[in-house]
Structures are given as structure tokens and as C-alpha cells.
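Table S2 (text version). Query chain:
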Amino acid sequence: MALQFGNPPVAAFAGVAHKRSLQILSHARAPLPAARFGATLATPSTTTALHVNPIAFMGGMGGAASTVAANADVLTPAALVTMALLAVQYCAQPPLTRKFLDKRANKKGITMVEEVIKMAFSAFFFLSCGKDIVAAELQGWTLSSSLLLAGLPALLYATQGVLTYLGYQNTDSVTFNGLNQTKTLSAALWCFLLMGKRQSVVQMVALTILLFSALLFQGSISFAGLFQKKAEVPAEGGEKAVNGGATVEKTRAHTSISKGIIPCLGAAFISGLAGALSQKGVQMAGGKGRNPYLYTMELGLFSSISLLFSMFATKNGRAALKDEGGIFNHWTPLSVIPIAVRALGGILTALVHKHAGATRKGFALILGLIMTGVTQSVIEGERLSADELMAMAFVILSSYLHLMYPPMVRVP
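Corresponding C-alpha cell output:
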């Protein structure tokens, strides 16, 4: 018998299918890390060769999208390129938004324009895939299948946005950042429940390390602070209080369980479900998966319909438009830049779901977070803290573990 890495259709979420003892019984030697690294990055022999799309900066993913059978345990060149581009987009988004978008602009109007731009970009990339791929994709397309594949995720994403905004308003930044980072764990759970994509024990440890590194980099926790004795300062009445105690009490008072913590957890839970449904749609629908550009257009269409309804068919939506002076009030000609970049991020998300999976999308976003911190440090001339440097090391470690130790199955 031999051992190889893969995704069995049915397996325990946290279990490893066959322990190392099987290697001893079968007189098989465990592969060296270098060999495992090469086997992981190599494209499976059963996968159709990657075709190159004319759209070079998108990594040539359009032509391959309809023919490559994606394997979430194998990082193909398409997966690496799309994850890197998503990280760059995630890094560039905050400064562009702060520079070119007025905070007073109508948020639903911004989202509506973003969806329209996203659909336009997706249509352009979809048509650039070639007549044969376009015809093959549209041949089996029906409205019912579109509603089933994209309608529910679009509704879930909209619900997630509402819960995230509610949680952000009713929790402190430390709590919000911590709960928000559980999205990757939620995605891993839902991918297992909906698709049978299990995680090995080592991969689960890697996801936990990734969560810890995100909290460490954002300042939600301090590794160095664990080994430092907190200073005590006099408080009113001659008593002593831990330094920062007033801040802690203020933070706790700002955090609401029912309106803050529960919505944050709900948003993370729904985010994982929506990501898993999107991954299933682009990887498994019709046996070969939906073209990610076509899928993004469908998501944009259903999201636009729900936004139009909430803006013009509800009393609160009409009142908000009236108070803010319309959709394009407080806009400038350059306001379209961050919106277009975010629209490209939506397309890249679908491509990452196609080629890498919803769980590994979390690694791309954490990489983007670190890139943001490093870029800001270079621009402002500030040195990275010890916690930030340790967080970067933990991200590298978690990525290595998750990549090198996927679930193992025995092939007869």
C-alpha cells in the first residue's frame, strides 16, 4: 500500500485518516519536507493543464476556471497568484478608501456602485476567456440554478454585513478584532460539513496559530506583556489599582453581549457558511464548478437587487437617501478608485475560492494585514514592535504547517 495526500469524501473533521504506524507496517518511509513541499505545489496529474487568459494581471485564471478540477490541498500556480493578488488588494484598500472616499457618503450607494463595477469587470474577464468557454458555461445556465448557487450566498453576505456593522458599533476594538478573526475557523468547519473537506490535526493547529498571529499583530493581545508584571498606580481612596484598570472597565462597559458579541460571532459564522457555499459553487457545481467570473456576476446581480430594494422600497432607506442628499453626494471623480479596487477584490475572492478554497483565503487576508502594517511602518518611519515581528513569524509557521501536512489517505 502507499500513502498520498488528498481529500477523502468522508472523514472526521479533526482526525487523520491513517497514522504514522501505517507507514511502518507498509515499510514506507515518510516523505522528506522538501519532497512534501514539491508534491504539494505540483499540479495533480489528473488536472487539466492551466490555460493562459489574455488578462495577464489577473493571473490567467479565466481560461482555466472552467477546466481545472480544483483541489484545496494542492496549491497550484493559479492559487498562489490569486492569493497574492488578494493580499495586495487587502493591503491597498484602507489607504485608498481614507484618501478618496468621504465618510459622509451614502454607504449603500457605495456598495451599489461597487456591485455594478464588479459585474462589469467580471463580464469583461468572462468574455475574454474565449467563445468556447463562454458557450459551454452558458449552455446549462438557468435562473433556478443561479438562484440556488448565488442567491443564498448573496443573502448571507448581506446579512453578514449588517451583523458586522452592528457588532462594530457595540464592542471595543479588541473584542471585535478577536471575534472577527474566527471567520477562518468557521470556513474550515463549513467546508467540512458541506463538502467533506476535512483538516488534519496539524492543519487545525496551524489555523489556531493563524488566529493567534492575527490577534497579536492587531494588538488585541500582547505576547511580551504576558511576561511583564503590570505596574500598580494609586487609585481614589488610597487603594491601588492595576495600571489601565479604568480603561478595562470602560472597554467592558462599551461591549454588549446581545448587541455586540453575539452579532460578531453570528457574522463570523455566516461568513464561513457563505464562503463554503461559494467554494462549492465554483468548484463542484455541474461536476466541474461554475466559472468564477460568471459566478461573481450572479452574486453582484442578486446583491444589487437587494440593495435597490433596501434603498428605495423601505422607509429607512428613503429617509437615509434624503438626509444624505442622494447616492452621489460627497463624491469626487477620484472616489471611484477605491470602489473599483474593492470590486476587483470581490473577483479575486471568487478566484481564491476556486483555486485555493475558503479556508486558505484566511491566510491571504492575514498576509494582507501584515503587508499593511509593514507598509505603514516604512512610510511613517516607525519600527515594527516585537509583537508584530513575532506575529509575522507565526504566520509563516502556520502557512508552512497547513501547506505541508494535509490529511493523508491510503490508496489501495
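Notes on Table S2: The longest helix spans residues 257-284. Residues 1-60, 62-72, 229-253 have pLDDT under 50 and may be disordered.
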